[in-house]
Design goal:
By secondary structure, the chain is α+β, with helices and mostly antiparallel strands. Helices cover about 30% and strands about 35% of the residues. It has helices at about 35-40, 75-85, 90, 140-155, 185-200, 205, and strands at about 25-30, 55-60, 65-75, 100-110, 125-135, 160-165, 175-180, 205-215. An eight-stranded antiparallel β-barrel has the order 1-3-2-8-5-7-6-4.
Length: about 220
């Protein structure tokens, strides 16, 4: 049986400064009219002043130039739900017809991927998102290895600025979002470390499925 209400996982280390306080919204869509989509994306500046809104940013996939990703951070699920009921439809109307196959997922913050996480995009150029589905009996191990193995390795990479590890309410889904100052620095991390870290963390035994993308940040989308 699935848990409900974003329960607390077993403790695997000290919490970050936003522990339990931030909802992460991830939107992925295929864009069919790029100019209109980008124009509409700028309209989301209207989020400023919304109670509970913490920050938003995104950009274009490096693997598929028609795919856009947006990440939005909220103080709580209740304040996000209030925004959705009041103002979302008005802001979203400016992008009607410009995209298709939009997939929206909500995650709750669990801990930093490098200390000092802030929902801020102004000092980064590249985003990396990993969407992980974990076997039912491996969720605690997966979270522990993220803290003990992956996080220190990523934090030690000079080009990695900040990141967040978050959990969905259902289906044992996790989101790892990392922010980088350049593609070149992220490439160094991937080449030198990933295979060794996979073995050390036992990631293959934890994961039922893994999907991800590398995203070029669009500064004009940052709110």
């Amino acid at each position: 049986m699935r848990r409900s209400g974003f329960p607390r996982p077993a403790s695997t280390g000290p919490p970050g400064p936003y522990d339990g306080a931030v909802l992460v919204k991830w939107i992925r869509c295929n864009v069919v009219e790029r100019t209109g989509f980008e124009r509409g994306q700028r309209k989301w500046a209207g989020l400023l002043g919304e109670p509970g809104f913490r920050g938003q940013g995104g950009g274009w996939s490096r693997s598929d130039p028609e795919v856009a990703h947006v990440f939005c951070f909220w103080e709580s699920r209740a304040l996000y739900d209030s925004f959705m009921a009041r103002s979302h439809a008005r802001l979203a109307s400016s992008q009607a017809g410009t995209h298709r196959d939009a997939r929206v997922r909500l995650f709750e913050y669990r801990f930093d991927v490098k200390m000092g996480f802030e929902p801020r995009f102004t000092d980064v150029d590249l985003l990396r998102v990993a969407h992980c589905r974990v076997h039912e009996d491996r969720t605690e191990h997966f979270s522990l290895m993220q803290r003990k193995v992956w996080n220190p390795a990523m934090a030690g990479s000079p080009g990695m600025v900040r990141g967040v590890f978050a959990e969905a309410e259902a289906d044992r889904e996790f989101l790892v979002l990392s922010m980088w100052d350049s593609a070149a620095e992220r490439a160094k991390y991937r080449t030198e470390r990933v295979e060794r870290l996979v073995l050390r963390a036992g990631t293959g035994a934890d994961l039922a499925a893994l999907a991800g993308d590398v995203i070029d940040l669009e500064p004009a989308w940052t709110v």
